[in-house]
Automatic annotation (TrEMBL):
Coiled coil: none annotated. Residues 130-246 form the DUF1722 domain. It comes from the Bacteria. InterPro entries: 2-thiour_desulf, DUF1722. PANTHER family: INNER MEMBRANE PROTEIN. Signal peptide: none annotated. This is DUF1722 domain-containing protein. Pfam families: 2-thiour_desulf (PF04463), DUF1722 (PF08349).
Length: 255
Protein backbone atom coordinates (compact mmCIF):
# COMPACT_ATOMS: atom_id res chain seq x y z
CA UNK A 1 0.00 0.00 0.00
CA UNK A 2 1.23 3.50 -0.77
CA UNK A 3 1.64 6.22 1.80
CA UNK A 4 -1.61 8.16 2.43
CA UNK A 5 -1.81 11.53 0.78
CA UNK A 6 -1.14 14.44 3.15
CA UNK A 7 -4.15 16.52 4.24
CA UNK A 8 -4.79 19.43 1.91
CA UNK A 9 -4.79 22.91 3.48
CA UNK A 10 -5.13 26.15 1.57
CA UNK A 11 -4.67 29.73 2.79
CA UNK A 12 -6.18 32.51 0.71
CA UNK A 13 -6.02 36.26 1.18
CA UNK A 14 -7.77 38.33 -1.47
CA UNK A 15 -7.62 42.03 -2.12
CA UNK A 16 -10.95 42.36 -3.98
CA UNK A 17 -12.93 45.30 -2.62
CA UNK A 18 -15.96 45.60 -4.87
CA UNK A 19 -18.79 43.52 -3.39
CA UNK A 20 -20.26 42.32 -6.68
CA UNK A 21 -16.88 41.24 -8.04
CA UNK A 22 -16.10 39.56 -4.72
CA UNK A 23 -19.34 37.57 -4.86
CA UNK A 24 -18.59 36.45 -8.40
CA UNK A 25 -15.04 35.50 -7.48
CA UNK A 26 -16.28 33.64 -4.41
CA UNK A 27 -18.74 31.52 -6.37
CA UNK A 28 -16.11 30.65 -8.96
CA UNK A 29 -13.52 29.79 -6.30
CA UNK A 30 -15.92 27.61 -4.29
CA UNK A 31 -16.84 25.69 -7.42
CA UNK A 32 -13.15 25.05 -8.07
CA UNK A 33 -12.57 23.97 -4.45
CA UNK A 34 -15.35 21.39 -4.66
CA UNK A 35 -13.01 19.36 -6.86
CA UNK A 36 -10.14 19.47 -4.35
CA UNK A 37 -11.51 17.19 -1.59
CA UNK A 38 -10.21 19.60 1.03
CA UNK A 39 -9.58 18.38 4.56
CA UNK A 40 -9.18 21.81 6.17
CA UNK A 41 -8.90 25.52 5.41
CA UNK A 42 -6.89 28.34 7.03
CA UNK A 43 -8.29 31.86 6.64
CA UNK A 44 -6.96 35.38 7.14
CA UNK A 45 -8.41 36.67 10.41
CA UNK A 46 -10.89 39.58 10.42
CA UNK A 47 -10.51 40.02 6.66
CA UNK A 48 -13.60 41.55 4.95
CA UNK A 49 -13.29 38.79 2.39
CA UNK A 50 -11.77 35.79 4.19
CA UNK A 51 -12.50 36.34 7.88
CA UNK A 52 -14.56 33.68 9.67
CA UNK A 53 -15.22 35.61 12.91
CA UNK A 54 -15.01 39.13 14.30
CA UNK A 55 -15.27 40.86 10.90
CA UNK A 56 -16.73 44.39 11.05
CA UNK A 57 -20.00 44.72 9.12
CA UNK A 58 -20.73 48.29 8.03
CA UNK A 59 -24.01 50.17 7.53
CA UNK A 60 -24.51 52.24 4.35
CA UNK A 61 -23.46 55.23 6.46
CA UNK A 62 -20.06 53.67 6.92
CA UNK A 63 -20.51 53.00 10.64
CA UNK A 64 -19.80 49.42 11.79
CA UNK A 65 -23.02 47.89 13.14
CA UNK A 66 -21.94 44.41 14.17
CA UNK A 67 -19.31 41.73 13.81
CA UNK A 68 -19.72 38.81 11.46
CA UNK A 69 -17.87 36.89 8.76
CA UNK A 70 -16.18 37.86 5.51
CA UNK A 71 -17.86 37.27 2.15
CA UNK A 72 -15.65 34.38 1.09
CA UNK A 73 -15.21 32.96 4.60
CA UNK A 74 -18.94 32.87 5.25
CA UNK A 75 -19.73 31.38 1.85
CA UNK A 76 -17.04 28.71 2.31
CA UNK A 77 -18.42 27.56 5.66
CA UNK A 78 -21.92 27.42 4.21
CA UNK A 79 -20.77 25.38 1.18
CA UNK A 80 -18.45 23.09 3.19
CA UNK A 81 -20.01 22.92 6.69
CA UNK A 82 -18.07 19.80 7.71
CA UNK A 83 -14.59 20.98 6.69
CA UNK A 84 -12.46 22.10 9.67
CA UNK A 85 -11.57 25.81 9.50
CA UNK A 86 -9.42 28.18 11.52
CA UNK A 87 -7.88 31.62 11.02
CA UNK A 88 -4.24 32.59 11.25
CA UNK A 89 -4.62 34.22 14.69
CA UNK A 90 -6.36 31.26 16.33
CA UNK A 91 -3.74 29.01 14.80
CA UNK A 92 -1.27 30.41 17.35
CA UNK A 93 -3.37 29.13 20.25
CA UNK A 94 -1.97 25.66 21.13
CA UNK A 95 -5.32 24.17 22.12
CA UNK A 96 -7.19 25.53 19.10
CA UNK A 97 -4.36 24.47 16.80
CA UNK A 98 -4.43 20.93 18.19
CA UNK A 99 -8.20 20.80 17.80
CA UNK A 100 -7.96 21.96 14.19
CA UNK A 101 -5.20 19.52 13.25
CA UNK A 102 -7.11 16.61 14.77
CA UNK A 103 -10.20 17.62 12.84
CA UNK A 104 -8.25 17.83 9.58
CA UNK A 105 -6.77 14.35 10.05
CA UNK A 106 -10.14 12.84 11.00
CA UNK A 107 -11.76 14.36 7.92
CA UNK A 108 -9.00 13.00 5.69
CA UNK A 109 -9.47 9.50 7.09
CA UNK A 110 -13.20 9.85 6.55
CA UNK A 111 -12.70 10.73 2.90
CA UNK A 112 -10.57 7.61 2.50
CA UNK A 113 -13.35 5.58 4.14
CA UNK A 114 -15.91 6.87 1.64
CA UNK A 115 -14.06 5.11 -1.17
CA UNK A 116 -15.29 1.74 0.10
CA UNK A 117 -18.69 2.47 1.71
CA UNK A 118 -18.36 -0.86 3.52
CA UNK A 119 -20.33 -0.96 6.77
CA UNK A 120 -17.52 -2.93 8.41
CA UNK A 121 -15.15 -0.07 7.63
CA UNK A 122 -17.55 2.34 9.32
CA UNK A 123 -17.64 0.13 12.42
CA UNK A 124 -13.83 0.00 12.39
CA UNK A 125 -13.63 3.79 12.03
CA UNK A 126 -16.01 4.24 14.95
CA UNK A 127 -14.09 1.79 17.13
CA UNK A 128 -10.66 3.25 16.42
CA UNK A 129 -11.89 6.80 17.09
CA UNK A 130 -13.75 5.92 20.30
CA UNK A 131 -11.31 7.46 22.76
CA UNK A 132 -10.66 10.49 20.56
CA UNK A 133 -14.36 11.31 20.41
CA UNK A 134 -14.75 10.70 24.14
CA UNK A 135 -12.03 13.31 24.74
CA UNK A 136 -13.99 15.85 22.70
CA UNK A 137 -17.61 14.97 23.47
CA UNK A 138 -18.90 11.91 25.35
CA UNK A 139 -22.43 12.91 24.33
CA UNK A 140 -21.60 12.78 20.63
CA UNK A 141 -19.83 9.46 21.06
CA UNK A 142 -22.98 7.97 22.62
CA UNK A 143 -25.15 9.32 19.80
CA UNK A 144 -22.78 8.01 17.14
CA UNK A 145 -22.61 4.62 18.83
CA UNK A 146 -26.39 4.35 18.69
CA UNK A 147 -26.35 5.37 15.04
CA UNK A 148 -23.86 2.62 14.17
CA UNK A 149 -25.80 0.08 16.23
CA UNK A 150 -28.97 0.88 14.25
CA UNK A 151 -27.13 0.96 10.90
CA UNK A 152 -29.07 -1.92 9.32
CA UNK A 153 -32.29 0.08 9.47
CA UNK A 154 -30.87 3.21 7.82
CA UNK A 155 -30.15 3.90 4.16
CA UNK A 156 -26.41 3.85 3.57
CA UNK A 157 -26.29 7.41 2.22
CA UNK A 158 -28.30 8.80 5.16
CA UNK A 159 -26.23 6.77 7.64
CA UNK A 160 -22.92 8.13 6.43
CA UNK A 161 -24.22 11.71 6.20
CA UNK A 162 -25.63 11.62 9.74
CA UNK A 163 -22.52 9.96 11.14
CA UNK A 164 -19.95 12.40 9.80
CA UNK A 165 -22.13 15.40 10.64
CA UNK A 166 -22.35 14.25 14.25
CA UNK A 167 -18.67 13.34 14.37
CA UNK A 168 -17.42 16.69 13.10
CA UNK A 169 -19.80 18.51 15.45
CA UNK A 170 -18.25 16.60 18.33
CA UNK A 171 -14.72 17.31 17.11
CA UNK A 172 -15.36 21.06 17.25
CA UNK A 173 -15.67 20.82 21.03
CA UNK A 174 -12.30 21.23 22.72
CA UNK A 175 -10.62 18.26 24.37
CA UNK A 176 -9.91 19.90 27.73
CA UNK A 177 -7.42 18.62 30.34
CA UNK A 178 -10.36 17.38 32.43
CA UNK A 179 -11.86 15.39 29.55
CA UNK A 180 -8.45 14.08 28.49
CA UNK A 181 -7.72 13.00 32.06
CA UNK A 182 -11.00 11.08 32.15
CA UNK A 183 -10.08 9.27 28.94
CA UNK A 184 -6.63 8.49 30.30
CA UNK A 185 -8.18 7.07 33.47
CA UNK A 186 -10.40 4.87 31.31
CA UNK A 187 -7.25 3.65 29.54
CA UNK A 188 -5.57 3.02 32.90
CA UNK A 189 -8.54 0.89 33.92
CA UNK A 190 -8.15 -1.14 30.74
CA UNK A 191 -4.38 -1.48 31.25
CA UNK A 192 -4.64 -2.81 34.81
CA UNK A 193 -5.19 -6.28 33.35
CA UNK A 194 -1.71 -6.16 31.80
CA UNK A 195 0.65 -3.85 33.68
CA UNK A 196 2.33 -4.34 37.05
CA UNK A 197 1.30 -2.57 40.24
CA UNK A 198 4.32 -0.24 40.00
CA UNK A 199 3.53 0.61 36.39
CA UNK A 200 -0.08 1.32 37.28
CA UNK A 201 1.01 3.66 40.06
CA UNK A 202 3.41 5.45 37.73
CA UNK A 203 0.67 5.92 35.13
CA UNK A 204 -1.80 7.27 37.68
CA UNK A 205 0.77 9.77 38.94
CA UNK A 206 1.51 10.97 35.40
CA UNK A 207 -2.21 11.34 34.64
CA UNK A 208 -2.72 13.36 37.81
CA UNK A 209 0.24 15.59 36.91
CA UNK A 210 -1.36 16.19 33.54
CA UNK A 211 -4.77 16.90 35.13
CA UNK A 212 -3.09 19.60 37.21
CA UNK A 213 -1.41 20.98 34.04
CA UNK A 214 2.08 20.20 35.39
CA UNK A 215 3.05 18.23 32.26
CA UNK A 216 1.76 18.32 28.66
CA UNK A 217 -0.55 15.69 27.19
CA UNK A 218 2.31 14.02 25.32
CA UNK A 219 3.71 12.70 28.63
CA UNK A 220 0.84 10.38 29.66
CA UNK A 221 0.11 9.52 26.02
CA UNK A 222 3.71 8.41 25.46
CA UNK A 223 3.60 6.26 28.58
CA UNK A 224 0.36 4.61 27.48
CA UNK A 225 1.79 3.94 24.01
CA UNK A 226 4.83 2.36 25.66
CA UNK A 227 2.66 -0.04 27.68
CA UNK A 228 0.52 -0.83 24.64
CA UNK A 229 3.63 -1.85 22.68
CA UNK A 230 5.26 -3.63 25.60
CA UNK A 231 2.23 -5.81 26.26
CA UNK A 232 1.06 -5.93 22.63
CA UNK A 233 -2.38 -4.50 23.35
CA UNK A 234 -3.82 -4.27 19.84
CA UNK A 235 -6.98 -2.42 20.93
CA UNK A 236 -4.96 0.49 22.29
CA UNK A 237 -2.43 0.48 19.46
CA UNK A 238 -5.30 1.04 17.01
CA UNK A 239 -6.84 3.92 18.97
CA UNK A 240 -6.53 7.21 17.10
CA UNK A 241 -6.50 9.03 20.42
CA UNK A 242 -2.89 7.91 20.83
CA UNK A 243 -1.96 8.74 17.22
CA UNK A 244 -4.41 11.43 16.06
CA UNK A 245 -2.05 13.18 13.65
CA UNK A 246 1.45 13.04 12.10
CA UNK A 247 3.96 12.99 14.96
CA UNK A 248 6.05 15.80 13.46
CA UNK A 249 3.22 18.29 14.07
CA UNK A 250 3.60 17.77 17.85
CA UNK A 251 0.49 19.67 19.10
CA UNK A 252 0.30 17.37 22.16
CA UNK A 253 3.64 18.77 23.32
CA UNK A 254 2.02 22.12 24.08
CA UNK A 255 -1.34 21.21 25.70
Amino acid sequence: MGRPESPRLITIKTGIDHTEKMLQWTEKKLTELEQRNLCGFIFKSKSPSSGIAGVKVYKPSGVPSQRGVGIFGGAFMKRFPLTPVIDDVRLHNPQLRKNFIEGVCVFQRWQELLKSRDINDLVGFHTSHKLLMLAHSPRHYALLGQLVADAKGVKRKDLYASYIQGFMEGMRLLATPAKNANVLMRIAGYLKKFITADEKQELLEVIENYRQCLVPLIVPVTLVKHYARKYRIVYLEKQRYLNPHPVELMPQNHV
